[in-house]
Amino acid sequence: MLDFRKLELNTTEPVYVQIVSFVKRQIFTGAAEKGESLPSRRELAAILKINPNTVQKAFRLMEEEKIIETPPHAVSVIHWDDTVFARLRRELTAGLVADFVAQAKENGLTLQTVTELLQEEWGDEV
After folding, report:
1. pTM to 2 decimal places
2. Where do the HTH gntR-type domain residues begin and end (predicted)?
3. Which residues, at least 6 apart from 63, have a Cβ–Cβ distance to it below 8 Å?
């Protein structure tokens, strides 16, 4: 089961969005597995010390985004398919890459220079 105690809530975005983002990152990084159970809504509310309605809102959004399933009278489980995973990959990396490219351009770096620097920094894995 995912360790939601690792989720550090902030005051800059809605809590339900932070819960959804946490689960998405866990899926993307491989920390969450398909079929893995989530705590009940009440359990998660107690863990995070938040209103159960906030957790319900997060679960509903995750169901709409097809990253969890909640069968009738059963616990919610992590679930995704290749299309959903590809969407998560784009969602979680597009901003990072865009920010990096903007900063590189602002610093006057060329694509070739950036590529060389990336290869150098990446090391032997290239």
Report:
1. 0.83
2. 13-81
3. 69, 70, 76
CATH code of the domain occupying 1-80? 1.10.10.10
* C-alpha to C-alpha distance for 16 and 6, rounded to whole angstroms: 15
74-89: pLDDT as tens digits? 999 999 999 999 999 9
Q: Is the dihedral of CA 18, 20, 25, 30 positive or negative?
A: positive
Distance CA(112)–CA(75), nearest Å, equals 50
Q: What's the CA gap between 66 and 49, in Å, rounded?
A: 26
Q: Is 77 helix (H, G, I), strand (E, B) or coil?
A: strand
Q: Where are the domains of the chain?
A: 1-80, 86-126
How far is Cα of residue 82 from the mean position of the Cα atoms in its chain? 15
